[in-house]
Amino acid sequence: MSDYHQISISGMLVFIIVLFFGSCQVSEDTVDENGPNPPVNQSQNNQNASNNINLAQVQQAPNQQQSQQFSSARLGTTSNRPEYDTIQPPVPPPARNRIQVALLLDTSNSMDGLIDQAKSQLWKMVNELAKATKEEEAPQIELSLFEYGNDWLSSEAGYIRKVGRLTIDLEWISDKLFKLTTNGGDEYCPWAIRDAAGILDWSDNPNDLKIIFIAGNEPFAQGPVTVRQACERAKEKGIIVNTIHCGGYDEGIRDGWGDLAACTGGKYMNIDQNEKVVHIPTPYDDEVLALNKKLNDTYIGYGSKGSSYKEMQVANDASAGNYSSANTRTRAFYKTKKNYSNTSWDLVDATEKDYDGFMKGVETKELPEEMQKMSKEEQKEYVDQKRTERQELQKELKTLEQKVDAYIVEKRKEMAEGDTKNTLDNVMMDAIRKQAEDKGFKF
To answer: Does pTM surpass 0.85?
Structure first.
């Protein structure tokens, strides 16, 4: 056999091997801790086949199943392509009463206003939820975040990404929300709902409140997953789906945004995504912000997350403040609530129930530098001191919150439009309050 033919055969073998292992890698990357993507009908398979996705495209665009396997190095980022984190927040602890909310936000090109409203009003929403009680106890609030309709995401995954699982770590969710960017694309709402209902760790307790909010502006029933399939998946888990059309009310009805809400006992709403949210300043804002800064100083970071989470806490304050002082003010008030717990990185929260028992499992190198040179007795005294400082600051902030709430009530009476604007926070809270009361929660 000639040298030419030997080289040709060798080259063909190399090509086949590369093709084989490349296919294995794509299959491997499409499974995460939640298992493979839930099965869909044959039309989805036909749709995926027609997309002609190659290996490079899949590697560059992680979906919600792929996000934990992809590193930013593999994403091949360009100047405007977002880099997706690979780490999820901690799994929430068991709780007797829970309010679980998954936000599914359209991040296609036309949705900058929607994302801005979500960023500016997240802490207002969770602060209102934290005022709820059931059986004289505050519920555990868990939040999850999805984005959909973004061309940077994998078409094989329906241009959908699970940004974060259901978690009580709302600082983590806030940080990722502020990093969302818009681009593209095709909005497959039923597919996004089916994924959120299928892969999140929803409570098995029928008395817990489980809600999906999905917001967008294109016709609802796009993509290979049907409204009926999405409805059945949500109803299996006892999830209420509320739909929010970004545009006219009648237009949203014509585009099918009311169908899935009706199917799951949810509410159809509409908003003007470009409406500017009303932020009401108060005479107490400067005092609140000063106390908030002191409150941040009472957090003692420990372990691998300690320093980065302290930095995230301050950064989220700054991001909220970019919208208004009222936004930072609301964040400060939420830090006084039982739901604002940071046991995974803050020693004060982590040692609240059993200081000695917890500290037995913490190595000296995991403590902040200022504590590493202290004796055991000095360490305990230091943590107790920070705990006392925090309790005093929280008490002052709670008093100011009452004054702020009373001031805003009076101010709204003076305003022609008040707080009745058709914005994301208003329609979401109207829905949540009614649905929470149906589950026995009180505000």
So the answer is: no
